[in-house]
User: Which sequence fits this backbone?
């Protein structure tokens, strides 16, 4: 999560919106959101991982302004950050 916080701080003003998703209970999620002081929303108790073909976690998606998934991979990778910057520059 520290990497996502760093990316949020760097790119939020340019339009990047991060939303984390967890299959953990709301109570568990609220606890670590508070402990980690996350500056973006985290959805709890999500069971739709199969809808996005998630076969391992963590996984990150970049979704463009039209709602299309344009990138999927590990959210801590440099490729994720670079693709996010590219998308923001194009919009």
Assistant:
């Amino acid at each position: 999560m520290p990497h996502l916080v760093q990316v949020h701080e760097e790119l939020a003003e340019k339009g990047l919106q991060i939303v984390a998703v967890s299959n953990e209970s709301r109570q568990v999620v609220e606890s670590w959101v508070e402990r980690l002081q996350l500056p973006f929303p985290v959805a709890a108790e999500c069971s739709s991982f199969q809808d996005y073909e998630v076969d391992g976690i963590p996984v990150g998606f970049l979704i463009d302004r039209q709602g299309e998934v344009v990138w999927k991979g590990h959210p801590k990778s440099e490729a994720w950050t670079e693709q996010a910057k590219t998308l923001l520059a194009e919009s």
Summary: The chain has a mean pLDDT of 91.
